[in-house]
Amino acid sequence: MLPSDLINHKNHSKKIIALTAWDSITGSIAEAAGADIVLVGDSLAMVALGHKTTLPLTVSNIINHTNAVSRGFQKNIDHQPLLICDMPFLSYQCGEDRAIEQAGRVIKETYAKGVKLEGAEPEVKRVISRLVRMGIPVMGHLGLTPQSYLNQGLKKQGEKEYEQTKIKEDALFLEDIGCFALVLEHIPNFLAKQIKENLKIPTIGIGAGTYCDGQIRVTADLIGLTDKQPPFSKPLVSGKKIFIKTLKDWVDSERLN
Ligand code: KIV
Known about the structure:
The chain has 257 residues and is an alpha/beta fold. Helices cover 44% and strands 14% of the residues. Helix 2 packs across helix 4 and helix 4 runs parallel beside helix 5.
């Protein structure tokens, strides 16, 4: 599947399901679970590398982890999930040429078929527009954008009317300049619904209600591996507790032998 094929899901009202992955094991799990998209999100900075925010992640980190994820895929290349990865903080905000080089590195050195960029500041819009024209598919990301942590924290976005207007305008703009899909994170449900209805490209929500054309979750949150999950991503199992108990039982039994 190519990024441009995703629009067929929206046109046929087929829900798009996306999961994050950060290494070959989680890549193989996300694929086996049937995800349409596997995102190597910069959340890996927190989930896998132990950072407090996504800000420290580098382009080399994302390249290494994206390669690990694709090595975990078991299916034939034509049946693998669509592999997308995040461009890390400040890898695309320091000049258009540098942004093209960094995104180009990601595309040349991994099997990712597109990149995700957060926000819609004028500089970011210009970069997205150029990337798309150069042949690098881009997924947008509006609402809560964790790379803006130092400015907005991790709080819900689009609560005020002027913010809602801005997010709606940015969404239309990102579609116009060629984004193939748009992640909407932690915004009011009614806003996500309006955006979905106004766009031709698919919207993929996280903490944005059920109206989006698809849903994405950080896999570690869903399976309860993280110590604290965001309010919109309740764990389905207590993965960490289960693993600790399993290993502790083994450790204890080995000590007795
Ligand atoms: O980094 C990430 O995992 C993401 C998802 C939350 C959409 O951007």
